[in-house]
UniProtKB/TrEMBL annotation:
Protein family (similarity comment): Belongs to the methyl-accepting chemotaxis (MCP) protein family.
Pfam family, one: MCPsignal
Top-level taxon of the source organism: Bacteria
Residue stretches making up the Methyl-accepting transducer domain: 1-101
InterPro entries in the cross-refs: Chemotax_Me-accpt_rcpt (IPR004090), MCPsignal_dom (IPR004089)
GO molecular function: transmembrane signaling receptor activity
Cellular component, GO annotation: membrane
Keyword Repressor: no
This protein's name: Methyl-accepting transducer domain-containing protein
Keywords from the named record: Transducer
GO biological process, one term: chemotaxis
The keyword Nucleotide-binding appears for this protein: no
Amino acid sequence: MSAATVSISDISSKSEEVRDIAVGKVSEIRAINRRMRMLALNALIEAARAGEAGRGFAVVSQEVRNISEEVEILSKALEAELAEEIDAMSHLARVMNESSNGQRLVDLALNAIEIADRNLYERTCDVRWWATDSAFVTALAEPGNEAFAFAAERLETILRAYTAYTDLWLCDTSGKVVASARRGQFAVTGESVNDRSWFRRGLSLSTGDDFHAEDVSREPLLGDAIVATYTTPVRVGGRANGKPLGLLAIHFDWQAQSDLIVKGVRLTDDERRNSRVLITDRNNRVIAASDGMGILTERIEGMAHGPQGWALSKHGRLIAHHTTPGYETYEGLGWRGVIIQTPE
């Protein structure tokens, strides 16, 4: 075993081997000592039979017996002390191994949520940039079928280049979808979305530099697809301080993209068999899972307090997490990268 490959688990294994060796050797000493005591006893018996001639030999035999008893006492004490110290060392190694593994999983959880953050930051840039497109400004400033059709063509062009989206919608101030990128797949044109929280919050944004990022949810008008929706108003003249004419809503294909993130975390093959990699929202609801289970229905309990950390559940599961640090102008939504590892 080279120094480069030694691990805390190796130290723990070696300490167990040392304990076994020590206990074995002490047992051998005690076995030899028992034989010495038997010999001493036999010598005393023979000395007694010899009478006065065996008196000197009896003294020696008794001394051997006394020494044997002292050796027995010392060997028992040695065995107990060695076992106690080696058990303590083994426990310390296990604790260090748990701590090391826990922190490593925290780092991997951070890596997962950072990748998600960078991806979602790009979505915030997309929606603010595309909202200034002259086709969208004209369609909402001078509404009409021809303007709406051209806006839909522009949305289709964008979507062909940006395949990470489920759909892109242009909405007027009443909440009616007037143009969409996937007209042939989703019949959303003419539908009202004014009951969506992302519509109300997006339309109330102060400037064109602002955006609204909605928590992951299912969108009924997209066949219940799981999406992350980003919005910002389309404004007069495409100017940041212009009056809102309507809203651009872009629906990020969260399920497909997040699946790549949680399945791409660098675990060993053995770890993959007993680990779940998750992303949870601010309410600890699962919004992505490497095993595809519990998405939007399961809530994770038992995480360590604070923005990052790890904890062992009463069932021995190690739960590591790290809260989003945000990226650039995207502060994040309080999401977490989470890794749950179940003992084999």
